[in-house]
Amino acid sequence: MARQFIALIRHGDYHQLNNVPSAHQPFSLTEKGQQQAIKAAESVENFCHRFHCVVDPEILSSELLRAWQTASIMSEQLSTQTQLTSTMLLAERSVGIVANLSIAEIKRAIIDDPRYSLPPDDWKSDSYYQLPFAGAESLIQAGERVANYITTQINTSTVKKHNSLKLFVGHGAAFRHAAYHLGLLHYEQIKQLSMFHAHPIFFELASNGIWQHCAGNWKQRQLTDKLD
Questions:
Q1: Cα angle 201-204-208, degrees, rounded to a multiple of 5
Q2: pLDDT-derived band of residue 156, with 50, 70 and 90 as boundaries?
Q3: Cβ burial 2-31 (10 Å sphere, 16+ → b, else e)
Q4: Which phi and psi (to 5°) does residue 85 adopt?
Q5: What are the angstrom distances between the C-alpha of 79 and each of 95, 173, 182?
Q6: Which residues contact 208 (CB under 8 A, 6 or more apart)?
Q7: What pLDDT, on a 0 to 100 scale, did the predictor assign at position 227?
Q8: Which domain holds residue 111?
Q9: pTM check: above 0.85
Q10: Are the C-beta atoms of 124 and 227 separated by less than 8 Å?
């Protein structure tokens, strides 16, 4: 029976605004991030050699520029001919209409609106907190969205006759919460772990339908780590 693998790949290092909690910033990879994407492709090639699998010809990425660029660079570096499909279903958690406002500006918007109460101090990392603005979602909701997309893509994959590796390029917080929904992390591990930039983590779908970690490392989370 053919083996099914996936890789979750956080985008490379990118230019970003300070003190802005939205992960929907429209900025590109830094030069460091571009080099990280090249190394990510090397990691994928090494994994395929080790596990005797081929890269699925369709790479799936978030539509946000840094993720798309990471996937695009990887596609250029891989020995397998691939095409890139991007979707907002792999995007990071949305904060809705206050996207790209600073933390202070978001707080002011909440204070100025009599319908809302102030969020908890740790709202940015609270998995279940959802800002009271149109289009906002919680981290746990973002993770569920990503997990559902991954599951759908695997269930509808046309690469069934040989061992295959499907690449998903996206964002750290959404991937960690998706991993919880997929049974790959316990809830308490969501805050304990992070993801290295452009460092693939590989999983296999076992015959019993359960995902299992098989290569690549999570990053031990520090208090100063970004949510994305």
A1: 145
A2: confident
A3: ebbbbbbbbbbbbeeeeebbbbbbeeebbe
A4: -120, 125
A5: 38, 30, 30
A6: none
A7: 53
A8: 4-220
A9: yes
A10: yes
Q: Domain tally for the chain?
A: 1
Rounded Cα–Cα distance for residues 221 and 217 (Å) = 12
**In this predicted structure, what is the pLDDT of residue 117?**
94
What is the C-alpha to C-alpha distance for residues 213 and 7, in angstroms, rounded to an integer? 10
* Residue 173 · residue 93 · CB < 8 Å: yes
In a domain, residue 186? The reply is: yes
**DSSP result, 151-195:** HHHHHT-S--SS-EEEEEEE-HHHHHHHHHHTTSS-TTHHHHEE-
Residue 10 maps to a domain:
yes
- How distant, in Å, are the alpha carbons of 39, 46, 55, 90 from that of 144? 29, 30, 25, 10
